[in-house]
Amino acid sequence: MARYHIICSNLSATACAPGGYQHVSHVGYQNAYGGAIVVTREQMVEILREPGNSAYTTGGGETAEVKVVRCDKCSKPFLRTEPDDTKADNLRKRTAGSSLRCGQTPRWRRFVAAVA
Questions:
Q1: Phi/psi-derived region of residue 114, left when phi > 0, alpha when psi is between -120 and 50, beta in every other case
Q2: Measuring CA to CA, which residue among 31, 43, 39, 33 is closest to residue 10?
Q3: How far is CA 47 from CA 50, 53, 91, 112, in A?
Q4: What does each of the 116 residues of the chain score in pLDDT, given as a tens digit?
Q5: Which structural domain range is residue 14 located in?
Q6: Which of 7, 10, 73, 93 is the most exposed place for a label (fewest CB within 10 A)?
Q7: What is the distance between the alpha carbons of residues 109 and 86, in angstroms, rounded to a whole number?
Q8: Could you give the CA distance from residue 24 to residue 37 in angstroms, rounded to a whole number?
C-alpha cells in the first residue's frame, strides 16, 4: 500500500487513434531524495490497480487524484486526474511549458550543482 506523488510527465508523440488523444506516456513520482522515478503509463496503471495504492499531483495549491480510466477512442487504459482540467491537473499541463517534464533537471538543482 503506497501513495505516489507524481511530479513530472511526458506525452506520447502521436495520438492513440485517428481523432484520438496524445496520452501521457511516462510519469515520474517523487522518491525519498526528491528526485523522480520515471515509469511508463502502463507501469503506473499496474501500480494503481494494486489494492491500496493511489497517486496524486499538485499545482496552484490544489491536489488532484490520479485515476485509471479507459480511453473512448482507443480503449486503452490511461491516467486522468480528478478533478480534471484544474490547476492541479498537471499530468498534461506538466508537458506544455513551464512545468517539469520527466528527464529535465529543475532549475534550482542546476543552480545548486553549478555552485557546488
A1: alpha
A2: 39
A3: 6, 7, 16, 33
A4: 899 998 888 888 888 888 777 888 889 898 888 778 899 999 999 999 999 999 998 877 788 899 999 988 888 898 988 876 666 556 765 444 434 567 655 444 444 444 44
A5: 3-115
A6: 73
A7: 27
A8: 15
C-alpha cell at 93: 499541463
Q: What are phi and psi of 49, to 5 degrees?
A: -80, -15
Residue-level length of the chain: 116
Helix (H) or strand (E) holding 78: strand 77-82
- Please tell me the total count of domains within the chain: 1
In sequence order, the β-bridge partners of residue 63 are 58
Whose CA is closest to 15, among 74, 93, 70?
A: 74
- pTM of the predicted model over 0.85: no
* Antiparallel, parallel or unpaired: β 3-11 and 54-59: parallel
